[in-house]
Amino acid sequence: MSQDSLVYKVASAPHEFLQINHLNYQTFVKEIPQHKENEIGQLVDKFHDENTYIIAKNHDQIIGMIAVRSNRPFSLDHKLHNLDEYIPSESVPCEVRLLSVKEEYRSTRVFYGLCKRLVQFCLEKGYNLALISGTVRQLKLYNRIGFKPFASLVGEDSARFQPMYLTKANFERSTKAFERLMLAASNHHEVNTVTHSFLPGPVSLHPEVENAFRKPPVSHRNSSLIQQLKEIQSTLCDLTKANHSEIVVGTGTLTNDMVAQQLKRLNGEGLILANGEFGYRLIDHANRSGLTYRTIEKQWGEEITLSEIQWALSTYSPKWIWTVHCETSTGYLYDLEGILSLTKEYEAELCVDACSSVGIVPVNFQDVYLASTVSGKGIGSYPGLGIIFHRDKIFSHPSIPRYLDLGLYAEKESIPFTHSSNLIGALKEALKNLEKNDHTDLSHCVRDIFKDWKLCPMGDDTYSPGIITIELPPGSSSSRVGDECKKKGVLLSYESDYLLKRNWIQLALMGYHRHEEVMKALTVLKGVLAPFKEIRYV
User: Fold this and answer.
1) Strands 93-101, 490-491: pairing kind
2) What backbone phi and psi angles, to 5 degrees, belong to 390?
3) What region holds the N-acetyltransferase domain (predicted)?
4) Which of 88, 91, 103, 307 could be bridged to 129 by S-S, CB 3.0 to 4.6 A?
5) What whole-number distance in Å separates Cα of residue 353 and Cα of residue 453?
């Protein structure tokens, strides 16, 4: 997190108040048990209409807040009947409540920034004293800011608070020492904080996806979750032109095992295409499932032509073809439309591993027999959900293990077993935000920058915009480059065995990426690459 990305302001927009209610719930229901839980995961404060909310935002996400109100009686009036006896005379007080900072930001300057904006707001309104009930968990921090304790503790045993007040003079006396303390803490924090991730999974997430995931979980038998899942299935089918979709708890590996189980029920041998890590994994899936098949195998990134596929179809008459769409190890993108046309001509079924293409490039699965993808790559949500598209209705079969039986999911509306409402909610939000993920233009921009640096990204415009692969020359080390970038907060894909073996680094432009953040991350990468003088564009 960069301090430049933080904004401190008075909340005004409807979406900000929704986030405030959610943060209020997370803090004062889940973390500090002052209120009862509810299904919506929102807590509207009893003084909401009187409150002014000072918020800290990291881009679109609210990460901290303080509520200010001046109307008497204060909440402390109900806990201390002689409140006025404790505060200095001639005070013009306001009450500060609902102080909350998200856990991952509590070791940063966010709390200080909120207090600084609070003091500014109070002075603008003519208040010269701010009252607060400070949680006993953070008394040292309050003291460092300049809050002064008074009276005895209030609240229930499970949530004890210390009445305190802050004046402008106290804040100014404490601020220099506090700034030094928090600057040291934030510098340490930022060294170990991820500033940008180019991983193909988990991918960078839109803040609204993160917010959806944090809602309290509900039962997979809950009617609202069932309806939500149906809506997601409909959205997925609209996105891919598929006839049916099923959502399972698992990864792309699981969905491909499920596809393999369906292929076992088609009589006759198949054909598997492989020119990279994930094509060869399909071969492994087939072996473990006892499928009979032939292959077209090429070197990694080498083209498998339609004429080669047509020759195999005409020579061997396979009943099915199984291929990846985007080969994640290189970014190679198969001509899915051309392959589908051939399978129709030769009366074969087409199955597609589309884990790295759905959400990145347009797809049409209307006539595809089976296709698989996941929640945590191109769609831009958390990993943990697998998605299988099918052209025809599928029914359960007793020969297939229960968890791998796609027909069982279809018959049970995708909920034969326990589902995760958190992952479902995040997936729904990610699908709503897909149009905000501008992969193609961003990919062209990044590729052009690499060429300016005399680097040669693998492939051309026919490759997926979601994966940019760079082979580093002899004398350089993908491991060293990746490690150094990680130390500086930029995560590259380089730690997989197949990447280390080939001295490759990858930038996955999947999920939610802000253009300016990508440019900052590339500046870091450029500095790491600078010592390798032998890198040349060819």
Assistant:
1) unpaired
2) -140, 145
3) 6-169
4) 91
5) 34
Per-residue pLDDT at 155: 79
Residues of the chain with pLDDT under 50: 1-4, 177-192, 533-538
Q: What is the pLDDT of residues 131-178, one digit of tens each?
A: 988 878 778 777 877 888 998 888 777 668 889 888 877 776 665 544
Of 35, 33, 74, 77, the closest CA to residue 51 belongs to 74
Model pLDDT for residues 99-142, shown as the tens digit of each residue = 889 988 877 778 888 888 888 888 788 888 889 888 787 787 77
- What's the pLDDT score for residue 536? 42
**What architecture is the 439-529 domain classified under in CATH?**
Alpha-Beta Complex (3.90)
- Could you list the beta-strand ranges (E) of 250-348: 270-274, 293-297, 320-324, 326-327, 332-333
Strand partners, 163: 133
By C-alpha distance, which of 285, 294, 286 is closest to 314? 294
Q: Which of 365, 359, 361, 386 is nearest to 374 (CA)?
A: 386
Residues in a beta bridge with 275: none
Helix (H) or strand (E) holding 506: strand 504-508
Class of domain 3-193: alpha beta
Class of domain 207-434 (CATH, top level): alpha beta
